[in-house]
Every structure is written in C-alpha cells, then in structure tokens.
Amino acid sequence: MMRSNDTPVTLDLFADQAPTTSGRIEPIGQQSFVLRGFALPWLERLLPALEKVLQAAPFRQMVTPGGFTMSVALTSCGALGWTTDRRGYRYTAHDPQSGQPWPEMPGVFRELAQAAARHARFEGFEPDACLINRYVPGARMSLHQDKDERALDAPIVSVSLGLPAVFQFGGFERGDKCQRIALLHGDIVVWGGVDRLRYHGVLALKEGLHPALGAQRINLTFRTAG
Ligand code: MD3
Ligand code: FE
C-alpha cells in the first residue's frame, strides 16, 4: 500500500512502545541491562511458538514449600523446567502434571535469548530452561533470589509481554533498598555476573487490556539451570 505522496506504508513494530525509549540500553546494575523494545521485531515469530508451548504444557498455579499457592501461574519449556510443591523448589526434565518431558524450547526463543545476551555483552549463553510466568491483574511475585540454577555464572534473560509491570530490583539482602523499573511489552532485561544473586520481585499487576495479549502479562525467563 502507498500513501498519496508515494512513501511506502510499513508496519510500525514499535507502535505501542514509547518512541523515546525504544532501542535504548539502560544499565540498572553493574552487569544488568534493560533493552527497551528489543523483542518487538521478534514477536511475529515468537507469539505463535509460545501458543504451541502452552498447548502442550498449560499454565498452572503451583504451591510453595510453605503451603501458599502462587498468584503467578507458570509453566516451562526446554530440557529443564522449574517446579515447586510442598517438597521444595527444583528443576525437572518432566512436567509433573503430564508426566511428559517439558516441550522443546522453540528455535525462535533460543535465538532471541542469545541475541539479547550478546547485546548485553554476555557471550556464549546456552539456555536449557525457559520459565514462563503469567500474571493476571493482582498477581505479584514477592522479593526472592534465583539460586536453584547450577550455573550461577550464566546470565538470565527475561522477556516481558503484555500488560506493563513494576519490577523491583534490590540488593543482596532482603531488606536492601529496591529500585523500581517499569517493564513494558517487548522489553528485555539481562542479569549476570555480580548482579545474578540480587533480590527481585514484581509488584501486583494493575488492571488493563493489552491489544495483543489481553488482561495479562507473560514473562519468559531463560536460564542455564543444569
Ligand atoms: C534479577 N520473574 O521467574 S524477571 C522469576 O517478571 C522472576 O516474572 C520476574 O523473578 C518476572 O524468578 C522477574 C526475571 C529475573 C530473573 C532472575 C533474576 C530477574 C532477576 C536474577 C537476579 C536479578
Ligand atoms: Fe526470580
């Protein structure tokens, strides 16, 4: 399609992103970076792959060792998936709900995670687990550290999709002061090195309707777990 002045009409992949922030790399720690809008050009391939993963391994609400049902629903793909129940937190090769291996990590997932890690100067990232979190309005994730992974030297890459959320990025002790960072559809955050064991969480999701994903936020986190 052409406009009357003969300039070609192209799809604006960044249409729902603030034009001033898209494409920027924001350092949030010594070895942590927000890559604004980095995932947007990948979503046409990524969202159908996500649909397929969710058909094979649907979202479920898990119970913590303390007996609380998490407000965030989750699932996984890749060689390893993360599970919690009354016995504890762990990575497993099988989905405990189906007894089947977790769905394979789609090629587009791995390529995006590796491209983002490289963009943040982490070379040779080989994720073997992708945790998929779903937040509906009101769902939150309280401050925690991620230390169930065997390779604590590998970075974690997180892709935010759907409704915006406020991410809390703290220090090495639960009581340390937190930065608050808004994460929007298509933003990627990469954490590694000295920042890998920092406390973090997500504030309760606000009501809203995202044009592509509806009333939810989905977060993909890529890890080297095994
Ligand atoms: C910061 N997920 O799944 S992004 C999680 O948005 C988790 O769903 C949040 O925390 C979410 O564990 C936050 C991921 C994240 C993962 C690991 C980190 C942030 C991190 C490790 C160190 C610092
Ligand atoms: Fe975490």
UniProtKB/TrEMBL annotation:
Substrate binds at residues 82, 89-91, 148, 174. The keyword S-adenosyl-L-methionine does not apply. The keyword Endoplasmic reticulum does not apply. Gene3D superfamilies: Alpha-ketoglutarate-dependent dioxygenase AlkB-like (2.60.120.590). 2-oxoglutarate binds at residues 133-135, 217-223. Fe cation binds at residues 144, 146, 200. Its cofactor is Fe(2+). One of its GO terms (molecular function) is ferrous iron binding. Binds 1 Fe(2+) ion per subunit. One of its GO terms (biological process) is oxidative RNA demethylation. It comes from the Bacteria. Residues 126-226 form the Fe2OG dioxygenase domain. Keywords: Dioxygenase, Iron, Metal-binding, Oxidoreductase. One of its GO terms (cellular component) is cytoplasm. Pfam families: 2OG-FeII_Oxy_2 (PF13532). This is Alpha-ketoglutarate-dependent dioxygenase.
